[in-house]
Structure formats: structure tokens, C-alpha cells
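Researcher: I'd like a structural prediction for the single chain below. Treat it as a standalone chain; there are no partners to consider.
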Amino acid sequence: MPRLILLNKPFDVLTQFSDRQGGRRTLSDFVPVPAIYPAGRLDRDSEGLVLLTDDGPLIARISQPRHKMPKVYWAQVEGVPDQRALERLRRGVTLNDGPTLPAGARMMDEPAGLWPRDPPIRWRASIPTAWIELTLREGRNRQVRRMTAAVGLPTLRLIRWAIGDWTLAGLAPGQWREISARPGSRKDRA
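Model: Treating it as a single chain, here is the predicted structure.
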């Protein structure tokens, strides 16, 4: 049976098991399980769900854009989105590497039970912030940050909440758990 691990990757952690430059935290600082690999990437300055597995076909289904597996992100942005900005995100925006696919985009309240980020985001009393939920079916480099910036809403904090049916529910930063590798199954292993 393939192994599948859900990890809540903290801020400032590389989505790899070693650091050639040295001195930076990596997945090996949190998950002491041999012979597993991340299914996709999550930027060092982003937080949230990373899936780790030893199943190559599962990695492909999760990470390759042609499979269009939905990934849900919570973005704290500078400014307050209006309907025009949300609609632009829903239709897709043009970035320097071409147009994005349409995305799910909606305003949301700050997530309940959200852990504090270390270090905290920059805070400016004169500029409001808001939370939006984005659902993407592709995974370009720094795509959420580039999309929100393109509509005038720079991302201050970014959390990946879900990949397909798998979510961060019940995982604090740095925590992980092994579950069934069957898509759609959330049954934890004993």
C-alpha cells in the first residue's frame, strides 16, 4: 500500500528534504519518514498543506496541471477586494507567462482557529487587509501571489488549505499524519 502523509508546512520551510545552501529548515526537520517525496511544491514563504508519498503515479495526479486537481488557498491580501477584482480572478488573469485558467474566488472571514505566523505579517494601520479563498486547477510558480497582485491586492499571507479532498483539518504547523493513499479517503492509519 502506498504511503501518504499530510503535513502542515510552516512558514520559512523549504518543500524539500535537504538544503544545499545549508541553514534553512526543510521537510526533514518535521517528517522523519524515509523514501517519501513531496507531491508538488509550496513556496518557502507560504504555509499549509503539503502531501508526501512514495507513490509516483499519485505524485503525478496531484502535481501535474493536466490532471486539474483543485487546490484551495487562503490569502490574506492588502486592501479589500471588490466584485470587479474577484470577477477578474474568476475569469483568469494574464500574467507575464500567459493567461491563467479561471479560478474560484470568494471573500471569506479570517479562518477560525488560525495559528499566528512567525514572524507576523507586516501591519499598517492605514491599509486594511482581507481574506480571500482561491481555488486553482494549475500550479505555476508563485501563481496566487502573482494573480492577487495583478488585480491590485498584494498577498501578505498565503495558506494552502486543501489539495483535492485532503485538507489541513486538525493539523497545527509542523504536524503531520499518515492517511490512506486512496483519493477521497480520509481514514487515518492506526
